[in-house]
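It would be a great kindness if you could assist me with a short task in structural biology. The full record is reproduced below for your convenience:
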Amino acid sequence: MKMEALHALFLEHPTICTDTRKVTDNCLFFALKGPNFNGNAFAQEALDKGATYAIIDETDYNTSDKFILCEDVLETLQQLATYHRKQCKAKIISLTGSNGKTTTKELINAVISKKYKTIATKGNLNNHIGVPLTLLSIQEDTEMAIVEMGANHIGEIEMLCNIAQPDFGYITNFGKAHLEGFGSVEGVIQGKSELYNFIRSNGGHIFFNADDPIQKEKLNSCTKKIGFSTTDHQFYNIEFLKANPFVTLKVEETTITTQLIGKYNFPNCCAAIIMGKYFNVPLEEIKSAIESYQPQNNRSQILEKNGFKIILDAYNANPTSMKAALENFSLMDAEHKTLIIGDMFELGTTATEEHQAIADLAKELNFQDVYLVGKNFFGTQTDLLQFETFDALKAHLEDQPLKKGTLLIKGSRGMALERVLDLV
């Protein structure tokens, strides 16, 4: 089936499903494959559950006119997304970076949606499957689409850009994330910069943090750029006021008090502000959008439970975000600060060195209590409390409960440290 015909079919049945557990009536089922599953084997089940058609790529399963046979289901999904994107009037804002992507995406969407009909990446569906699904959620009346892009190796952002064809781009930062795939921080910079390279090559506009020397240098010769800075007056100036605990900033003569903790969230807010200004969203609407935004899904959430004030930041972690979180926590006005941190994943050969550096920092910052959790932290040389598994931590805390006060919980997603909430 030609792409034009498949797209016409999609417009008649604009719901895409890739999981038979989530099939809805009249959807299109794309039989994707993975290391441990073959979607072709579930295509008939999808039809039985209400899917109108199933897109497959193995002839053995092509048993009725309800199956659409293609060469590769994933490539077809991606090509359909690009075709659909080109038929729509929506402008695409893409963003990537080592830390803060999802929070920044949510802030941008909150601001831009004050004036425009928007869609944005749901959750962190930011990979080679999530980006196409986001693009296919663009409707006829959508004016702006905010598309988050994640990557763990060089070439991935370029591939996602070729699918999404963004008009605008923003990189949050370059940090020590996914070093196993990128190989080094230099690899991270090269990989993430693929977004700026694509935008620049295709005549689009770039938003950037002019206080980031790496971004400033890379965009030195770029003419279509919109920057923010706390000091350089050739760019849009935004003043950082405080983050104790919530980020407060000043734009022109307007003070904005967010519900986001940590100075590391300041540039995330700035990105949303300059995009709002660029797209002519009134400043009072920008203020309203940012002040009303509340983090969700274990991302720097502030919770109160049983006399504890808890900062739950257990969605993800890497050396850059961990260092920022610990330093911010050390500066907070709080009684009896307790730190529970878990292993940082995907660090490759640097894992030992990076975990030792964080353990040393946790010791240096003199928190009242520190608990290190996970195999990597268990292997560090320190006199802080170390637990190889979560169950070992749990057993310890059941015997010696945490002392009341302020608690920071941070670790990689695989550590699932939100389970600590059941122990306070």
